[in-house]
Amino acid sequence: MKLFSPFMWATLLIVTAGIWLSTRKKEPVSSKSQSEIRAPAKATIADEIDVQPFVTEAGWGYVIYMKGKPYIRQDNIPVVEGNKGFSTREKALKAGQLVVYKIKHAILPPTVSKQELDSLQLLN
């Protein structure tokens, strides 16, 4: 009379191997010590943010690029009803720079208020 079938032996072997592998201490893949491994600088993403104003049918707008790709496109003045764009290139650029500032300083979502735009004299 057999105590264990070949299937039971195989199952026992697989379970034992799984337990043994899960309890082993994992070695770091890198040969560098923990003191040599440093996190990337926080400014790396912030350095890759740019704002470009552009002309629209309603005035001026801006696009914010992150890592060279469009991230935010604003065709009109935020918080103002209708499709009214900024009156000048400089105003659109300044509004975009405010949004970039908020992104760089982790003020998310980078919404702007009517008071902020008014205080910067960006409302027409």
How does this model look, in words?
The chain has a domain at 43-119. The model has no long low-confidence stretch (mean pLDDT 81). It is built from 4 helices and 3 strands; from the N terminus they run H-H-E-E-E-H-H. 35% of the residues lie in helices and 18% in strands. It is rod-shaped and about 90 Å long. The chain has helices at 6-23, 43-46, 89-104, 114-119, and strands at 49-56, 59-66, 69-74. The protein is α+β, with helices and mostly antiparallel strands. Pfam families: DUF4907. This is DUF4907 domain-containing protein. InterPro entries: DUF4907.
What is the radius of gyration computed over CA atoms, rounded to a whole number of angstroms?
A: 29 Å
Q: For the report, how would you describe the main beta sheet?
A: 3 strands, antiparallel
Q: Regions with pLDDT < 50 over 5+ consecutive residues? A: none
Helix content: 25-40%
- If helices are DSSP runs of H or I spanning 4 or more residues, what is the number of helices? 4
- The end-to-end span amounts to 96 Å
Total number of β-strand segments? 3
Strand order of the largest sheet: 1-2-3
Strand content: 15-25%
Shape, per Cα inertia axes:
rod-shaped
Mean pLDDT over the full residue set = 81
The assigned structural class equals: alpha+beta
Pfam families: DUF4907
Protein name: DUF4907 domain-containing protein
Organism: Rhodocytophaga rosea
